[in-house]
């Protein structure tokens, strides 16, 4: 017949100890608690629950920091924290915490901060936090960032921020752990430099997100290296906006290119003959662009003739007339001949009144007549006997 195994002395102590006793992980998660602790803190503080979630919102950060700072030399640390109660009140608890040498777990005893029935309302026990703490809490709760602090040995003493959710992590999860254990050989050069006392910054792509990381060494009162403050900001929204702007700019550039092509539709209407029908208002800026496009087309096609058809142009000014004449002269310098066609009566009167000299420039009433002129010239050159 099997005999029951004798109860371990620690188990017997833990079960019968009259005080409230809790064992938590370095990240603040309850590992075990005795009946007295459950009776004092309530049923919601149970194994697997993080103690910070059970604390007053204004005390949660201090509790998390205290757990992260406790050393393994057996020396106890004391602080007060308010615990949530089912009736909406807050129970002020005094915590005494310590770690055994070489052990990661944190041991804690709990007791009432005042009388045995000290149930106080939040308004009565919640003094206003300093402005700096309230600002920090607002930033951590509302901005998509992760903020962390290590001591000079690289041990996390603070780990919080809204963006932790992107990694499936929770505030305080890495407290008491070393960055060298967490990242191993994957510590980036800027982060390693910060652990040596040099500030740094980097942009990385992790878990499908863009992150901007800033590393700031901190110093103690004697200006000695005391640790590192790290801030990681999720830049996905900024990256998305940047990509949208770049896509819109690219679209605008393509649209402008199409508009330019429509403004200067250079067409090869015959072998060695190009034509440029100009429509609408031709200002100086457009005329200069037309010249660049036309001269480039003449050079690429080795054209013999370039017809500028002004049938669709109703108004020209002095600068435009000057550009037209200069365009014809530039075409000649490329070994081709420039021809003007379709000059309207109003445009002809303007050119005369402006004193524009078109002598020496072939002009024709219509594009058809100008093309016929070019074909005749080409045929004449083709039939000319070789010397």
TrEMBL record:
Q: Which InterPro entries match?
A: Bact_StressResp_Reg (IPR051932), PAS (IPR000014), PAS-like_dom_sf (IPR035965), PAS_4 (IPR013656), STAS_dom (IPR002645), STAS_dom_sf (IPR036513)
Which residues fall in a coiled-coil region?
Answer: 235-262
Q: Which domain of life is it from?
A: Bacteria
Pfam families from the xrefs? PAS_4, STAS
**What UniProt keywords apply to this chain's record, in alphabetical order?**
Coiled coil, Phosphoprotein
Which positions fall inside the PAS domain? 132-189
* The protein's name: PAS domain-containing protein
Q: What is the lineage of its organism?
A: Bacteria, Pseudomonadati, Myxococcota, Polyangia, Polyangiales
């Amino acid at each position: 017949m099997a005999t029951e195994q004798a109860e371990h002395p620690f188990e017997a102590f833990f079960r019968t100890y009259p005080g409230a006793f809790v064992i938590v992980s370095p990240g603040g998660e309850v590992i075990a608690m005795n009946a007295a602790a459950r009776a004092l803190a309530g049923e919601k503080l149970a194994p697997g629950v993080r103690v910070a979630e059970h604390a007053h919102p204004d005390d949660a950060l201090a509790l998390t920091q205290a757990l992260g700072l406790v050393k393994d030399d057996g020396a106890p640390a004391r602080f007060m924290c308010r615990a949530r109660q089912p009736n909406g009140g807050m129970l002020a608890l005094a915590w005494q915490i310590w770690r055994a040498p070489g052990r990661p777990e944190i041991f804690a005893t709990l007791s009432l901060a005042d009388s045995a029935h000290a149930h106080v309302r939040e308004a009565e026990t919640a003094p206003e936090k300093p402005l700096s703490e309230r600002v920090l809490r607002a930033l951590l709760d509302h901005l998509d960032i992760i903020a962390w602090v290590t001591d000079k040995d690289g041990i996390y003493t603070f780990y919080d921020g809204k963006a932790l959710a992107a990694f499936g992590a929770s505030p305080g999860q890495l407290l008491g752990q070393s960055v060298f254990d967490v990242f191993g050989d994957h510590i980036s050069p800027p982060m390693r430099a910060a652990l040596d006392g040099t500030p740094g910054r980097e942009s990385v792509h992790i878990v499908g997100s863009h992150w901007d990381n800033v590393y700031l060494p901190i110093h103690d009162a004697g200006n000695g290296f005391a640790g590192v403050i790290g801030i990681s900001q999720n830049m996905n929204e900024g990256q998305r906006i940047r990509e949208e702007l770049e896509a819109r700019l690219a679209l605008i550039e393509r649209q402008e290119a199409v508009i330019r092509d429509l403004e200067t539709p250079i067409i090869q209407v015959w072998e060695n003959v190009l034509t440029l029908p100009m429509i609408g208002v031709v200002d100086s800026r457009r005329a200069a662009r037309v010249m660049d496009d036309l001269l480039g087309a003449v050079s690429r096609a080795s054209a013999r003739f370039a017809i500028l058809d002004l049938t669709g142009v109703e108004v020209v000014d002095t600068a435009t007339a000057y550009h037209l004449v200069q365009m014809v002269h530039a075409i000649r310098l490329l070994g081709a001949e420039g021809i003007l066609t379709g000059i309207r009566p109003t445009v002809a009167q303007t050119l005369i009144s402006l004193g524009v000299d078109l002598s020496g420039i072939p002009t024709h009433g219509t594009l058809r007549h100008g093309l016929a002129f070019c074909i005749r010239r080409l045929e004449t050159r083709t039939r000319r006997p070789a010397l």
